[in-house]
Design a protein that fits this description.
The complex is a heterodimer of chains A (522) and B (292). Chain A has 522 residues and is an alpha/beta fold. In chain A, strands 1, 2, 3, 4, 7, 8, 9, 10, 11, 12, 13 and 16 form a twelve-stranded mixed β-sheet that branches. In chain A, strands 5-6 form a two-stranded antiparallel sheet. In chain A, strands 14-15 form a two-stranded antiparallel sheet. Classes of the chains: A alpha/beta (522), B mainly alpha (292).
């Protein structure tokens, strides 16, 4: 090998090096385990100013840590293995679903109820280990701390899983561990909206001319379809026997009406809604409520709490606004987001870490931190009712003299009755219309809430078609015909202008007595 | 593995292979291979194949398949038999047309005055018009949203708001090409016109207007096309009550990629036809640097 060749080889080696180092992790923290988590944007405690540690525990905002850093430290200490969490976020369930279908390999996802069912039905997620549900293991924070109510919801819900030719029925609890949950309802501005009137109208608030241009709906098909179902079948829903055995079952069926006969009724309701509302919104609703732009906002309970907090925290006294929350009498939506393990998590060897992550997020400490940061209600109750104490600290009465029977707010349905009845003392506003009511609705509200199932492929196509027809304007047939003819006309005209001279048929004949130049030459 | 990272690595790997191939050539033949100027196009050709042609084929594939991935004209038939989709295309074209015309009406005098004036600091004025482009677009639209709210227009005049937002957003794209074309009109033409006794109006219609057509065309292309699809404006300023074709594509890709691809394909055809109408494919030299 001569000198030149050696130089060339050295150069080739130099070119290979950066590529190799790029392949081996791009200079990020090295770890034994890499856990890839895919969740909603702004859905965990990110530390810093306004976090639980900063506001409640009184830590300096620089010391209030990101919960992922705490998890990594905890995991290393507990399992003697270093870990790195790659945390990515999505904006809608559908975005997340597309990523998963395209083959992005995340270990742990946090989709909503219907998306969990869809992922399970399509065999894209795997059940938790049996050891995850072993209550005797002190590290199994999820099963030890989860609310008995949520546990019940997850154990009663079923989904049919298709694996190749086989079909099996499983419960939600096998596939998902809850994270946050809530209801949907109206955030309203009591300066302009009368509560009694709202109770009277229920879902019909959407079409009431008193609130024309002062109310918003959600710019996504499922939530607004749900609201339109409430609007269409309000009378039927109200006529149900609330004490009846099958009350919630019948109500759930009504809120899952997606067959073609029903969608035509819903179409009428949606059109009436559209002509009355201020607009469809994805996340401007909270801000528009706080600034007083609109009076009513159809919202998820967590966003409602956020809007209520934000409005009363205004800097100037005169800007302070005390918004309220309301769930229609006829019934509403019960939703939850939960952690699910993607297919292949075993092969990648990250199942243990993923389950540990879910457990860490389920300690009462983490639940408080996350819940405080984002405003949503955690599914965690706490072994000793820690979350109840925390709720009491935030929303309970301060003066012991106010701890009267009248002010008692029963929360046994959520926290369970293992240690006897559980409840807190709170003033009337908190009990019936403010943050406490939004975070933990009274039992009778919960009993009239229904989970909305996922739409199968055909239903989804039909309802999306309906949604696009609602959202967009449709012209009359004659107008469309005129436009089509005009479009074809323009194209033909341009064709004529551009190519007309090249086609013999269109060529202008020379006047008699004149000859074309070419002919002369010839 | 993360798809983005994978693509990045593939590109890196390709570069590496080219490098190694070159070195191998050098080792065997004892000299570097000779490159003609044409081979400088190779990186662009690779880019073209991976990021333009293949994605286009994928869209084509999805548009003409059904959920079971069988070939089907179903989406095509559904699209053209659905009055809503045709109406949305019509609405988008009308919104884009109005936007373009308004932009042109505002931009032409501005460009003309700036280009023909003897002002010393006219670059500063031009910069002021282009300056908004340097600020994040969502931020600007948000600011307009607040402004409209203050004026009481938000939620009342959704179509007007949408067109206003589009005009505001795309105006610089109309001013710049017009400015460059008008700048390049030879001053002696104006002198000649004056010598021959033409008044201002005749000079404008016989000299300025015909010679700025390339600039108008490239401005129109750059305003018309994006304003058919920019649904962020219609969502923010029209409270999502105005639906244009871009929003349709976005929504369909949440549930049904096949229909989404079909809508995208139809839009592609509309774009193709309108580019062709405005002479965007002309390869002749009279474009005169009007394209940015």
């Amino acid at each position: 090998m001569n000198k030149r060749q050696a130089v060339c080889l050295a150069l080739a080696g130099a070119m290979l090096l950066p590529a190799l180092s790029a392949l081996s992790g791009c200079g990020a923290k090295q770890a034994d385990v890499i856990l890839r988590v895919y969740s909603w944007a702004e859905y965990i405690d990110e530390g810093g100013e306004g976090s639980y540690q900063n506001d409640i525990e009184g830590l300096d905002k620089a010391d209030a840590r990101h919960i992922l850093d705490d998890f990594e430290a905890w995991y290393e200490e507990t399992y003697r293995e270093s870990i790195r969490v790659d945390y990515a976020t999505f904006g809608t369930n559908e975005d997340m679903y597309n990523e998963i279908v395209l083959g992005n390999e995340y270990d742990l996802l946090c989709p909503s109820d219907y998306m969990i069912m869809k992922l399970a039905a399509e065999d894209r997620i795997v059940p938790y280990d049996e050891s995850f549900f072993d209550e005797s293991d002190p590290l199994n924070y999820y099963v030890r701390n989860v609310s008995p109510y949520i546990k019940g919801v997850f154990e009663n819900g079923t989904v049919t899983v298709t694996q190749g030719e086989r079909q099996e029925t499983h419960t939600w609890s096998e596939y998902a561990a809850g994270y946050m949950w809530g209801t949907t309802g109206f955030v309203y501005n009591p300066e302009h909206v009368d509560r009694a009137d709202l109770e009277e109208l229920g879902w019909k608030t959407f079409t009431s001319d008193k609130y024309t241009n002062k109310i918003t709906a959600k710019d996504n098909v499922r939530d607004t379809y749900f609201a339109a179902l409430g609007l269409t079948y309000q009378d039927e829903l109200l006529s149900l026997d609330k004490q009846g055995e099958s009350y919630n079952g019948t109500l759930t069926d009504i809120f899952n009406r997606t067959e073609a006969d029903y969608t035509e009724d819903v179409r009428t309701a949606l059109l009436a809604m559209k002509s009355n509302i201020y607009g469809f919104e994805t996340d401007t609703g909270k801000q528009d409520m706080v600034s007083g732009k609109i009076w009513l906002n159809y919202a998820w309970s967590g966003d409602a709490v956020y809007a209520l907090d934000e409005a009363e925290d205004a800097e100037e006294e005169e800007d302070k606004l005390y918004l309220e929350y309301f769930v229609p009498e006829a019934g509403s939506n019960l939703w939850f987001d939960g952690w699910v393990l993607t297919k292949g998590v075993e092969e990648r060897g990250t199942k243990k870490a993923a389950q540990a992550f879910v457990n860490y997020m389920s300690t009462p400490e983490s639940a408080k931190r996350n819940s405080y940061f984002i405003g949503y209600t955690s599914v965690i109750a706490g072994e000793k009712g820690e979350m109840c104490d925390y709720t009491d600290d935030l929303y309970g009465v301060e003066d012991e003299a106010d701890e009267t029977e009248e002010n008692y707010y029963d929360l046994t349905w959520f926290f369970g009755d293992e240690n006897g009845a559980v409840g807190i003392y709170a003033d009337e506003e908190q009990r019936t219309r403010r943050q406490l009511y939004a975070q933990f609705p009274p039992q009778d509200v919960i009993e009239r809430c229904a989970v909305m199932n996922y739409f199968d492929a055909d239903t989804s196509e039909r309802i999306n078609e309906l949604w696009s027809q609602i959202k967009a304007e449709t012209l009359d047939a004659w107008a469309i015909s005129v436009l089509c003819v005009a479009a074809v006309g323009i194209v033909l005209f341009v064709l004529y202008v551009k190519f007309g001279s090249k086609i013999d048929f269109f060529r202008r004949k020379p006047k008699k007595g004149y000859e074309l130049k070419e002919q002369k030459k010839a | 593995m993360n798809t983005t990272l994978l693509i990045f690595l593939l590109v890196l790997l390709a570069a590496l292979l080219i490098g190694i191939a070159l070195l191998a050539y050098r080792l065997v033949k004892g000299r570097m291979p000779r490159f003609s100027r044409k081979s400088l196009c190779i990186p662009y050709a690779v880019f073209l194949v991976f990021f333009v042609i293949i994605p286009m084929l994928v869209i084509f594939f999805y548009a003409f398949t059904d959920r079971e991935m069988h070939f089907s004209f179903g989406n095509f038939v559904k699209f053209f038999s659905d009055p809503t989709k045709l109406s949305t295309i019509a609405y988008s074209i009308v919104i884009a047309l109005i936007t373009t015309v308004v932009c042109l009406l505002i931009a032409f005098p501005v460009a003309y005055i700036l280009a023909r004036s003897k002002m010393k600091k006219k670059y500063v004025v031009l910069m002021l018009f282009v300056l908004p482009m340097w600020i994040n677009f969502v931020l600007r639209i948000n600011a307009i949203r607040e402004l409209f709210n203050w004026m009481g227009l938000l939620g009342e005049t959704n179509y007007f708001n949408t067109v206003f937002g589009m005009v505001y957003d795309f105006l610089p794209f109309m001013i710049l090409p017009l400015y460059t074309t008008i700048m390049k009109i030879d001053n002696s033409l104006y002198e000649a016109s004056c010598d021959l006794g033409a008044n201002g109006f005749v000079t404008f219609t016989r000299i300025t207007l015909p010679l700025s057509v390339p600039g108008i065309m490239s401005g129109v292309t750059m305003v018309f096309l994006p304003s058919m699809t920019n649904y962020v404006v219609s969502d923010m300023l029209g409270n999502s009550m105005v639906t244009i074709i871009g929003k349709f594509i976005y929504e369909y890709f949440g549930s049904d990629w096949h229909m989404g691809s079909m809508v995208a394909l139809v839009l592609l055809v509309v774009v193709f036809v309108s580019t062709w109408l405005t002479g965007g494919f002309q390869s002749d030299e009279n474009v005169r640097g009007a394209n940015l």
